[in-house]
Amino acid sequence: MILKPTTTDTKLEGEVTKVRQAMVNQAIARIKQIYLPEDLRRRVLYDLNAQIANTTTRQFIQEVRQVVAKPALPIEQRQLLEEAYRLAFQEERGYLAMVTQLEEKYRPAMTSLYREIIMAKMVIFSSNDD
After folding, report:
1. Which of 12, 63, 86, 100 is most buried (CB neighbours < 10 A)?
2. If the chain, 130 residues long, is cut into consecutive pieces of 10 residues, what is the mean pLDDT of each piece?
3. Taking a C-beta distance cutoff of 8 angstroms, is the pair 24, 96 a contact?
4. Dihedral, CA atoms, 111, 117, 121, 123, nearest 10 degrees?
């Protein structure tokens, strides 16, 4: 056989779903470990859970951006909320890096998830520059 066998799209999609679930669960666990006022913790956990629910990445990014940019929060709370999101994104990227190193056959799919995280981070934190 000249060409290496490839993972079927269905199997790959199933693996991506599993990795996304595990990635988000890792971020959720980390957020539960840190100090956050309960209302801020609920916001971050809601948004992380939205990543694995039946929502699109675009819907998730829009929701998170609205929460972070919400002017009703005092600046100190907004900064704390932003740090919590940064930590969640860092956890997700770390998890994907580990999977990518261990599972070369899923590298293209993991790269796609990694790009989603980077895009979400850029959208969320670009609101601070406005």
Report:
1. 100
2. 56 80 94 93 85 70 70 84 93 90 78 79 65
3. no
4. 90
